[in-house]
Amino acid sequence: MLRSVFRCFQQNSVAGQRNMSQSSLSGKVAIVTASTEGIGLAAAQSLGKRGAHVVVSSRRQTNVDKAVALLQSQNIQVTGTTCHVGVREDREKLVQMTLEKLGGIDILVSNAAVNPFFGNILESTEDVWDKVLSVNVKAPFLLTKLVAPHMENRGGGNVVFVSSVAGYQPITGLGPYNVSKTALLGLTQALAPELAQSNIRVNCVAPGLIKTRFSSELWKNEALMDQFQKQLSIKRIGEPQEVGEVIAFLCSDQASYITGETITITGGMGCRL
């Protein structure tokens, strides 16, 4: 008798946890930049499956349309638009459209990044630095500045920056990109105490080698993969969804006492500045 009661309790508890996780972001509005593939799309899926209405974006309308169709097929509430985060007018349009269509903003996941250079850092040009810092560092800050008042109007919110293991452990040949990802670690810590006054939490994730198109030049290179494998405790490439789930957790009430932190998702690769 006691065994059957305990089993019933366990089943109800598991079901309750499942329902809670699926609806923990119900009614929330989440903007995810660069979210038509890879980590951005995985973040949109994880947030959407927890009940958030996600706003996905990309520079190309065809990519936006494909992502919207995919998410709708998964019963996720979604709105899509084009946006180049390095362009002020596009950032403003993204925020304004979200406000007009959905009435507010609760979550910002800043995922967009570029890497236009590979080689000796001393050979990188001013134009390369301007582009990398504009998209990878300035845009996340300026988007946060745009959405913060609207989050405050809703009683609070969450900002998550997507950095990289390269922010801790520079990858050879990616000098400006490495520096930009380190900057996001500092931006997270600088913004967190300021925005905590408005009940807005600011956190960051630093993925390791994740199987995306963006990182394909790394994981398709056998020599580089051999180097990475030696540093990994979990001897495989990570999947985008494994990053998306951590992002969704950081935006949930389960992470309500976490701010100013960077969570590394690296398969055990050492990360230290």
UniProtKB/TrEMBL annotation:
InterPro entries named in the record: NAD(P)-bd_dom_sf, Sc_DH/Rdtase_CS, SDR_fam
Record key words, sorted: Oxidoreductase
Molecular function via GO: carbonyl reductase (NADPH) activity
The keyword Oxidoreductase belongs to this UniProt entry's keyword annotation: yes
Family listed: Belongs to the short-chain dehydrogenases/reductases (SDR) family.
Name listed for the protein in its UniProt record: Dehydrogenase/reductase (SDR family) member 4
Species this protein is from: Cynoglossus semilaevis
